[in-house]
Amino acid sequence: EAQVTQNPRYLITVTGKKLTVTCSQNMNHEYMSWYRQDPGLGLRQIYYSMNVEVTDKGDVPEGYKVSRKEKRNFPLILESPSPNQTSLYFCASSTPGDRYNEQFFGPGTRLTVL
Amino acid sequence: GDSVTQMEGPVTLSEEAFLTINCTYTATGYPSLFWYVQYPGEGLQLLLKATKADDKGSNKGFEATYRKETTSFHLEKGSVQVSDSAVYFCALPSNTGKLIFGQGTTLQVKP
Q: Are the CB atoms for B69 and B60 separated by under 8 Å?
């Protein structure tokens, strides 16, 4: 089954404790990205990657890091989480050459930073 | 820059009522347009799409027509069900591949 998986689905942590949210896709997509969803603000892109070893900032990259060492994986790293990073996070992937540019989303990771 | 504006919710309807969720966009050129749906506790799923002017996307009884003259892509369904209760997002792709979303419209359908 074609899918995007994220782990963990739920995470409660404390300020300053480094964490990683994993994302993996099995569709051989070149393009992957991370969004956060906040009430009243909709979905905003954090980082994206056009291919292996190619990453770039989205609209709200502060406080986050990413890496793309393999095509299928795109982990999101919070080196020192703060309460304002409490949010619902989604990973997405697509094939940029697809004229529809449809993106496939993971199930989401709900993060709470105390 | 490119943007998407959706009607604010929440929208509360009775089962079998007619649904319209308005979406207008600002974009350079004529991008594809999408409606995504987010059911409670789940990720976003593509509901329907249109790739050029006057295209009509449809799925699960929902329809939306790409109107270039009014820069709109309104979502409609003739008879909603309780199972349609969800958050609906209108979106268009940017040239970096990012999806530009509207704010989302929450739909609640009551029996």
A: no
Contacts of A35 in chain B (CB under 8 A): 99
**CB of B9 within 8 Å of any CB in chain A?**
no
Query: B41: helix, coil or strand?
Result: coil
Interface size A-B, in CB pairs within 8 Å, comes to: 55
Summarised one tens digit per residue, pLDDT across range A57-76 is 999 999 999 999 999 999 99
Chain B residues touching A100 at Cβ < 8 A: 32, 49, 51
Q: Is B101 helix (H, G, I), strand (E, B) or coil?
A: strand
Whether B109 contacts B13, CB under 8 Å: yes
What is the tens place of the pLDDT at every residue in B39-80? 988 889 999 999 888 999 999 999 999 999 999 999 999 999
